[in-house]
Description:
Helix content is about 85%, strand content about 0%.
Amino acid sequence: MEFVKAFVVGGLICVVGQLLVDLTKLTSARILVLFVLIGCLLGGLGVYDKLVEYAGAGASVPLPGFGSALAKGVKKAVDEQGLIGVLTGGLTAMAGGVTAAMAFGYLAALMFNPKAK
Length: 117
């Protein structure tokens, strides 16, 4: 049942993104930023955590999950370090994921020889 929940919630997030692409004049980059901001807002309010509990990877892997993780990192850093945590919390929380994405992207570029269009 966990897989079904993850599939449905992740699919609904994708459907919202596709509707924004089809029905608005927003660019893909703006939609991506909007999803991260919504995830930050919902994560900061504690709402997104309930969705992650329900749907697992279906909610934590898409872009709003990234925003929620940023907000969670900032909350934790502010509690521990004070105001400086606003600047360092998001970076600390997501450093591993961003580093992995950059490393795997670099390896893929080496293996597949990308060309500019």
